[in-house]
Write a sequence for this structure.
RNA sequence: GCGCGCGUGGCGGAAUGGUAGACGCGCUAGCUUCAGGUGCUAGUGAGCGCAAGCUCGUGGGGGUUCAACUCCCCCCGCGCGCACCA
């Protein structure tokens, strides 16, 4: 029998010892009681979810703490999954004891690919398998004693939930972004109802793009729809999208890896021109960055969002290009307009429109390297485009640094110098960033420099290092560009013959000032303007899957889209003969998506009265991505059954509104949101975007969804292989005794044969899975919870080591023994007052543990509770007044044993709402402290002194110590630093 | 390449300028036990020493300070994110 097992085994032990069997009994008992009594119900201000047993919600401070929406996988949980759930449960229980009204609930994110695939494999409807998975997950989590308000649970697949997901879509669809709108919060720019835009078109306050002024009413429905589509926040895009034939669906940029493959399934992704739903998240790019300052998130996640959004400030500049078809404008985007004088050529992306005007013949004298061996520019460009098109987006980056390109035969006029710049096409310029065209400044940009070097293009430096930098332009000339912003502008004035000339290189002007100067000049000349660019692309929002939310959109026979009215929601999924996606050869870029929803004509074709009498329509057959449901679930916990509103506004204000408590501040939102860092730019960006739209449209009162975000680490695990490299069951591997000592690697055996340890994830194929159920059987839920919380800081990843669990079990056993006589089962505490030492330890522990709990450091809280418990163990009899606060402080972490002991100590009520202990100040100011005496920073003596000892007195005592005298060698000290009553630091005289 | 984070006993980790290694695992010895295990008591960074004690010690090197795991600079190693974004 393994040691670990023996601790928990009831065999041959005192009759009333705390062991796995006892734990099992009391855990099930308390879980039942909590359920029956609604112990963890959160009280709404009004309506059905006010909680009759508690004080009215309005009199309590709300505290909203949730985990990231779990996905009910068919595989069940292992011990790594619930780490975050246990952490939020500890926080929830702690806040309840502080007298707060705690919102803690869990729903299920149940649409999505794995559920659909699992259903296809098992031949069952995804709803059936998904609901089974949810039931299993609920069981596993319930057995852990998590303090959720179960009345508030739901799944994204519930028709009532889906109704509101579709409702939000319809509000986003029916809105546009007015960049000039003055918001009530003082900001500028807001989502507004599309009706306001139509009013502006009708009244002539805004021009109708591509149409005559004041002609709105005379335009056809299709024409109007096309115009509005360009403004709607949810719109039909007709641009290249990520198509993964192997998955049979299109994907958002965020779901495509840097290698140009699908995050799920790792299939190749191709750019394909398709009509798809998009969300205009780019309209919110600036606010999504700016408002990061108002929320309490890890810097790392903020940085990842900032990088993903990629806001850059620069200028667009118009270049004229002479073609056989007349003069064409080529707009370039640059972040360094100050280097306009250094532009010696131009590059357009292979997809750029300008390439339609490539001349038929090379001019005389074009270098061979520019031609790429082609007879005509048209052949060269055609072939270059063909190759570029065949590369996936990230193949282009693959050869990292080595730039290819071809001369187009075209020239652009530098608007500031009048110089003729040869235009190249090269795939290092991307069509979907900026304008797809750049002015190349080899003197100031590494990529342009590389390109210029390869094709023999001139290099002009327009910036030189600052005089006091110790750097000089000669260090760069002929070998590198000078890319720094810290520099003085040079070589940047035009001769007087050029119209509207401007000089940037005067008065030692520096780069940042020159940028402003040149932007002002460009705007004055109407040849450019200051602009902002984003790396962020609009969010591709449709998928060709069965298991997702249908769009509340129908089309008439002319394919004009119509939004279904709220009264027609939800649009439920139809039964289809086959709900599996149509997948293709993963490499088949010529294939096109086919939506499973299109397989049921009865569902697709409908006759509806949308206000102008019954007409025939066909439904949109796409479904929404998995992210849709998880974009807004947190607010539904507040009001899960509301059929009139997304969430009742008054309840929203109470739970999530700005300033709803001291934690959330002005941004409002969830007080604590715990989850893995993997959602940093997916879920968390999408949810913030939706939230801001709902905020702009007045449906929610807080500007951010999640005020504080905490990323928990991952639980990792050892896996073992045998000599052939096959995985062997980790549970059966033993460590060779003494092998891991003196710095040597430990050795392992599996059934007597050598085994080799590796470190990584927990997984079936690695044969190292430990499930929560294993833990309940062997130790009980409390030991499991305690162990996970004591392993180390919550934010760090660490290895699961089953061997160590026994320590947590022993702590609970000792606590139990301090209260219960193991042989008789009687309560054994004394009613006598604790002695002075015990009071000191107790009150110091209360003070310290409170701080640890506030800062989410359960690991150090636990170690301090153990110290207190170990102290109580040394006493002849354990005073009630000392052990009761200990039980209360342990209860958030190990709630079942705490409830049981609390109950046996004579309390009838659950301790869940019992006030958290408060330290008595008078025992914190201890009567004696240890003063440390240092000589040259090394501890040489200790003194027991009064805490309010006079510093001079302390100094005298310290200097009198023999160990100090010895080191002073009879000379007076050079310096003595006294920080009474803790430290005396003596500096001896120099020899 | 750029950005961020991390590096402490045999192991998980504690200490954010003031007694390095709290607490736990493991290990050693003793008690309990027919025995193993459990439980209990004590010890456990390394080196020297019978001991008192001394010396060394937080990836490496340098600096600031009376005092550095902690702050600053350089280097090494590991992890994460971004990566032709003009």
């Amino acid at each position: 029998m393994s040691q670990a097992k023996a601790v928990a085994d009831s065999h041959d032990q005192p009759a009333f010892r705390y062991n796995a069997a006892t734990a099992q009994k009391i855990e099930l008992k308390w879980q039942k009681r909590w359920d029956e009594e609604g112990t963890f119900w959160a009280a709404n201000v009004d309506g059905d979810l006010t909680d009759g047993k508690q004080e009215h919600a309005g009199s309590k401070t709300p505290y909203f703490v949730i985990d990231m929406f779990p996905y009910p996988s068919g595989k069940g949980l292992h011990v790594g999954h619930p780490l975050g759930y246990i952490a939020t449960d500890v926080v929830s229980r702690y806040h309840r004891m502080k007298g707060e009204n705690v919102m803690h609930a869990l729903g299920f994110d149940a649409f999505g690919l794995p559920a659909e695939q699992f259903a296809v494999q098992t031949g069952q409807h995804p709803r059936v398998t998904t609901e089974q998975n949810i039931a299993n997950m609920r069981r596993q989590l319930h057995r852990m004693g998590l303090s959720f308000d179960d009345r508030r649970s739901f799944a994204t697949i519930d028709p009532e939930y889906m109704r509101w997901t579709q409702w939000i879509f319809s509000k986003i669809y029916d809105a546009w972004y007015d960049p000039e709108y003055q918001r009530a919060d003082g900001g500028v720019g807001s989502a507004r109802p599309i009706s306001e835009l139509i009013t502006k078109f009708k009244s002539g306050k805004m021009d109708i793009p591509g149409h005559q002024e004041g002609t709105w009413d005379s335009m056809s429905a299709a024409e109007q729809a096309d115009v509005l589509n360009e403004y709607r926040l949810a719109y039909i895009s007709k641009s290249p999208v990520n198509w993964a034939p192997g998955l049979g669906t299109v994907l958002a940029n965020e779901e495509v890896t840097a290698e140009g493959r699908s995050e799920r399934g790792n299939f190749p992704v191709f750019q394909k021109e398709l009509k798809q739903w998009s969300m205009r998240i780019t309209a919110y790019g600036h606010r999504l960055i700016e408002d990061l300052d108002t929320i309490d998130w890890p810097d790392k996640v903020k940085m990842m969002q900032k990088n993903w959004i990629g806001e850059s400030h620069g200028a667009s500049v118009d270049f004229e290009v002479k073609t056989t078809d007349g003069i064409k404008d080529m707009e370039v985007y640059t972040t360094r307009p100050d280097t306009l004088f250094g532009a010696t050529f131009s590059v357009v992306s292979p997809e750029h429109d300008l390439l339609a005007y490539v001349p038929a013949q090379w001019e005389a004298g074009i270098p061979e390297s520019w031609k790429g061996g082609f007879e005509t520019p048209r052949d060269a460009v055609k072939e270059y485009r063909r190759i570029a098109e065949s590369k996936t987006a990230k193949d282009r980056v693959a050869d990292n640094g080595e730039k290819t390109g071809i001369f187009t035969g075209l020239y652009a006029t530098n608007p500031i110098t009048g110089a003729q710049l040869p235009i190249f096409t090269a795939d290092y310029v991307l069509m979907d960033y900026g304008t797809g065209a750049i002015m190349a400044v080899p003197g100031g940009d590494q990529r342009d420099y590389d390109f210029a070097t390869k094709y023999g293009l001139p290099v002009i430096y327009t910036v030189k290092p600052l005089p006091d930098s110790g750097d000089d332009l000669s260090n760069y000339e002929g070998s590198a560009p000078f890319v720094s912003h810290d520099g003085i502008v040079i070589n940047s004035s035009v001769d007087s013959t050029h119209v509207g000339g401007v000089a940037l290189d005067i008065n030692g002007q520096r780069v940042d000032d020159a940028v402003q100067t040149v932007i002002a000049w460009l705007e004055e000349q109407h040849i450019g303007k200051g602009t902002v660019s984003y790396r962020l692309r609009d969010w591709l929002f449709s998928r060709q899957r069965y298991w997702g939310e249908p769009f509340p959109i129908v089309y008439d026979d002319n394919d004009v889209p119509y939004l279904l009215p709220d009264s027609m929601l939800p649009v439920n999924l139809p039964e289809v003969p086959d709900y599996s996606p149509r997948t293709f050869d993963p490499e088949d870029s010529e294939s096109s998506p086919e939506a499973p929803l299109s397989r049921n004509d009865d569902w697709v074709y409908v006759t509806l009265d949308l206000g102008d009498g019954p007409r025939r329509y066909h439904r949109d057959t796409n479904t929404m991505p998995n992210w849709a449901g998880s974009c807004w679930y947190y607010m539904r916990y507040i009001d899960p059954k509301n059929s009139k509103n997304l969430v009742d506004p008054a309840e929203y204000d109470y739970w999530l509104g700005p300033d709803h408590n001291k934690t959330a501040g002005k941004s409002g939102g969830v007080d604590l949101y715990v989850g893995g860092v993997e959602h940093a730019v997916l879920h968390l960006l999408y949810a913030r975007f939706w939230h801001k739209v709902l905020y702009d449209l007045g449906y929610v009162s807080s500007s951010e969804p999640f005020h504080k975000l905490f990323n928990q680490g991952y639980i990792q695990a050892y896996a073992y292989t045998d000599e052939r490299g096959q995985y062997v069951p980790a549970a059966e591997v033993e460590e060779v005794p003494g092998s891991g000592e003196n710095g040597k690697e430990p050795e392992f055996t599996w059934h007597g044969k050598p085994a080799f340890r590796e470190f990584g994830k927990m997984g079936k194929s690695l044969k190292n899975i430990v499930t929560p159920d294993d833990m309940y059987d062997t130790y009980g839920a409390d030991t499991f919870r305690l162990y996970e919380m004591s392993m180390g800081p919550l934010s760090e990843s660490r290895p699961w080591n089953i061997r160590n669990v026994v320590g947590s079990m022993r702590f609970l056993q000792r606590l139990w023994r301090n209260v219960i006589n193991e042989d008789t089962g009687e309560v054994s505490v004394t009613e006598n007052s604790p002695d002075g030492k015990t009071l000191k330890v107790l009150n110091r522990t209360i003070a310290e543990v409170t701080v640890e709990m506030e800062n989410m450091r359960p690991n150090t809280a636990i170690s301090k509770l153990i110290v207190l418990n170990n102290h109580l163990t040394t006493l002849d009899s354990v005073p009630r007044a000392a052990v009761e606060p200990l039980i209360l402080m342990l209860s958030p972490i190990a709630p079942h044993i705490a409830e049981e002991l609390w109950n046996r100590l004579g309390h009838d009520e659950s301790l869940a709402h019992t006030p958290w202990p408060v330290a008595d100040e008078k025992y914190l100011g201890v009567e004696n402290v240890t003063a440390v005496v240092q000589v040259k920073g090394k501890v040489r003596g200790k003194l027991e002194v009064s805490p309010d000892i006079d510093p001079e007195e302390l100094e005298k005592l310290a200097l009198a110590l023999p160990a100090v005298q010895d080191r002073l060698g009879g000379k007076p000290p050079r310096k003595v630093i006294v920080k009474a009553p803790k430290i005396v630091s003596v500096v001896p005289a120099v020899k």
